[in-house]
Amino acid sequence: AISIFPREIHYMAKKELFKNSLVAAFLRSLHAFPVDRDAPGPSSLKIPLGLLKKGETVGIFPTGTRTVNNSLKQGAVTIAQMAKAPLVPVVYKGPVGLKAKNFFARETASITIGEPVHYHNLTGQNAKEKKEKIKEDTLELENIFNQLEKEAT
Predict the structure, then answer these.
(1) What is the DSSP string of 85-153?
(2) Which pLDDT band holds residue 68 (cuts at 50, 70, 90)?
(3) Which residues lie across from 11 on neighbouring strands?
(4) Residue 91 pLDDT
């Protein structure tokens, strides 16, 4: 987020992180908003689409977590296509978590930023075609992340 300062990033974060009122207040101060990953409702799309339409930046972890070890979920591509906004893939390599051993190990961290990906407008396509295109674009995005991950090593 510091690399695009003074722009703010509004992060999608799992709702479980907002259970503790102190943590929730901290996350909201970082412009994070809760999302139910198990049963995503309309707000999972409405909030990020509203932010993007206002010209804001939305941070999404397309695997549903901060690591790339899982396959990508289709939400990031769906949101980018619906908002007609580019998706900028970013890969973080370095310590994960707030464990003391990570702090004292002084592990280096790196961020690799890919080129913006622009998606085609799906207007006029039927539901089956849209679903298939989102699936294809998600696989393509996964390949981009994998390539960025290799470049980061």
Answers:
(1) --B--EEEES--S--HHHHHHT---EEEE---B-----TT--HHHHHHHHHHHHHHHHHHHHHHHHHH-
(2) low
(3) 32, 59
(4) 86
Q: Which DSSP symbol is given to 72?
A: P
Rounded to whole angstroms, the Cα distance separating 125 from 103 reads: 50
SS3 of residue 77 by DSSP: helix
User: Is residue 94 a contact partner of residue 107, using CB atoms and an 8 Å limit?
Assistant: yes
Give yes or no for a contact between 35 and 12, defined as CB atoms under 8 angstroms apart.
Answer: yes
Residues 141 and 87: beta-carbon distance below 8 Å: yes
Phi-psi region for residue 48, left (φ > 0), alpha (ψ -120 to 50) or beta?
alpha
Tokens 């390539």 belong to residue? 147
Strand (E) or helix (H) holding 51 = helix 43-53
The token pair that represents 49 in the structure block: 């689409």
Q: Which two tokens stand for residue 87?
A: 């998706």
At residue 65 the predicted structure's pLDDT band, cuts being 50, 70 and 90, is low
β-bridge pairing 57-59 and 9-14:
parallel
Q: Under a CB-based contact definition with an 8 Å cutoff, are residues 128 and 107 in contact?
A: no
